Amino acid sequence: MNAVYDRTIKMHTGDWYMNEKKTEKKRFRLEHWKKIAFVIGFYDLIMVSAAYYLALLIRFDFRYSMIETEYVEALRRFAPVYSVACVVVFIFLGLYKSIWRFAGFNEFLRTILASFLMSAVHTAATLLFYCRMPISYYMIGTVLQCIFVLGIRFSYRVILFFSARSGKRSSDRIMLIGAGAAGQMILRDVNNARTNGKVVCIIDDNSNKWDRYVDGVRVVGGRESILEYVEKYKINKIYIALPSATMAQRRDIMNICNETDCEIKNLPGMYQFFSGQLTVNALREVSIEDLLGREPIKPDMEEVFAFINGKTVMVTGGGGSIGSELCRQIARHSPKRLIIFDIYENNAYDIQLELKDKHPELDLVVLIGSVRDSRRMDQVFADYRPEIVYHAAAHKHVPLMEDSPCEAIKNNALGTYKTAYAAMMHGCERFVLISTDKAVNPTNIMGASKRLCEMVIQSFDAKIKAGRADEIPALYLHRGADVGDYAAETMPAAIRTEFVAVRFGNVLGSNGSVVPVFKRQIAKGGPVTVTHPDIIRYFMTVPEAVSLVMLAGTYAHGGEIFVLDMGSPVKIDTLARNLIRLSGLKPDEDIKIEYTGLRPGEKLYEEKLMAEEGLKTTDNKLIHIGCPIPFDTDQFLTQLGELIDVAYRNDGAIRTYVERIVPTYHPTYNGQRILPDPVLETEKAEEGKKEAVPAV
Predict the structure, then answer these.
(1) Predicted confidence (pLDDT) at residue 479 exceeds the cutoff of 90
(2) CA-CA distance, 117 to 134, in Å (whole number)?
(3) Is 438 part of the annotated catalytic residue set?
(4) Is there a single domain that holds both residue 368 and residue 400?
(5) CATH number of the domain to which 351 belongs
(6) pTM score > 0.70 for this model?
């Protein structure tokens, strides 16, 4: 046993010794730039003295015998001291830490100043401590020293320049847009790398730069000249180097560029400019977000994160596109506990693994269940007592819900009701419903179901503010002996839950978004399918959507519908064509576009507010509050209970019942009004007859 132990100790000791040796070798290994600095330092040590020896020879016409002995002796004694002093001062001034392949005016100026400073020291030292040298000696020595010190440092750029000119260069012909500092850095990087092609012209809107040259490349004109010079110079690539341009300016320029067949690359923004990372590799493919035509919304989230800090937060539908991003942002800002609730275990598992990896300290609870299960929702809220709830769980796919309308009502309307009821009963502070612009004047059952969700939270808010929360019925559909337990639960003495809805448009990159579908179709070679050439939509990014949702939870006072100003809507046909161009292909030639017709329940355009809703501003000018449309909450809650029974009977006429509850809902099929429902038409006719009967 001891022998085994000894062998083990020796093995581990040997491993430790070898690792130490490897670490020691690695520790004393000189990095490449330090080797270069050492070589330049050794060069300086010799050449600064050689400059003055040469100056003395020039002064006496290269006749060494004519040089007075005291001059030679003074220089012999002073030269070693001066050389060492120069290297020390150069180290202090950072002349050995510059990247000389990118050396510019700043490095040039520092080198000149350092050289003249040491020349002044040389003059003063020889006059004070040695002997007075000829005046021409000082002047020639200063110039020669400056040439020698600068020459070694900038020779690398000269060599790169001539090797780039003489070597084989890529055949790409590049137009650079932007003649500012960023454009110059990109131009320099292209010139230094033969594989990047050649910049043959520059575009800049500043007319003062037109017909002038940057590193030998002509600035030919402004953005209106792009198409002309793409054809004239046979351009096949366009690099956009406008880090400080607004989103609208970028959009206008890219819309022009998209009319060409060129590959387009875009500098992302100011970060690379300030960090000095401007190279061709920093350019990225133009993303579809660049074409939205508005600046990204960047609200101050400090208030939001202070609100979340130390609280138990629950996200329903936490595995979805919006839900998972909500979880990511919440996890970064120290909640007391984060509860992810989802019916689809794969998505829930994915976000669980991601958050555990990034935030090991987070108290994370992942639960599987359905928001349609009132007992499960009551159990979750009773066990974990979440203080803030973001309700993202919903069916969102319009055509699929048109085929299964009862499921949209069960999951969206009833699921929201049961989750909201459980939140109210167990002391939740804020309940944030994630709605959609499709809830405005809905033409499909999904939009109508989301409008029902908004009406649910408005009803809850109205009842609570009126002090009549006990009148909100506990809707459930469980059957069994213990079914009354949940309904008989004692109503809390003080209801404090504030309910709010957030309404936004299509989210780029989310599950079911049109952009990933277009990208897949382009990758397959087409065709790209667009439902209608005139269809338009509002778009926003996932982070923007999540920021709005979280702000709503902070701004809420109860009953509001928050609306994001999403700028101008985008034509889906234009979106598809731009995506094809950004892939380096031509619409209708390389990739066909097919118009398939509006899908069931689909509108040509979406609205953010109903005509009856006014707008109130918030502290953020891009976020507004829609004033709720008044409705009879008692009647609504009664009708909703009846609608639930209809949905669970899977009644095919459910749209008729939804129309009765949601007056703004007008079902369509392929953009046309669906055939009148006979039951509804009969009822309307009977009501008309009653109104027509004169009073006796």
Answers:
(1) no
(2) 19
(3) yes
(4) yes
(5) 3.40.50.720
(6) no
